Amino acid sequence: MKGRIRRCSADHTYTLAAQCPVCKEPTETAHPARYSPEDRYGLYRRLVR
Fold it and tell me: Following DSSP, what letter does each residue of 1-26 receive, concatenated?
């Protein structure tokens, strides 16, 4: 387990575990992806928004 905080998308609780302790659903990282100026697909990702 890494020390990054994770978030359950079902009930929006925060935890360090890979599985939510409340609803037992898998959690996802609560942090955004790291920015890179050499991102080849950044233009396309911004156009979709």
Answer: --SS-EEETTT--EESSSB-TTT-PB
Q: Is the pLDDT of residue 8 over 60?
A: yes
CA atoms of 6 and 14, how far apart (whole Å): 6
Distance of alpha carbon 46 from alpha carbon 43, whole angstroms: 5
Where exactly are the structural domains of the chain?
1-33
Structural contact between residues 25 and 36, judged by C-beta atoms closer than 8 angstroms: no
Q: What is the pTM of this model?
A: 0.60
| Rounded Cα–Cα distance for residues 45 and 25 (Å) | 28
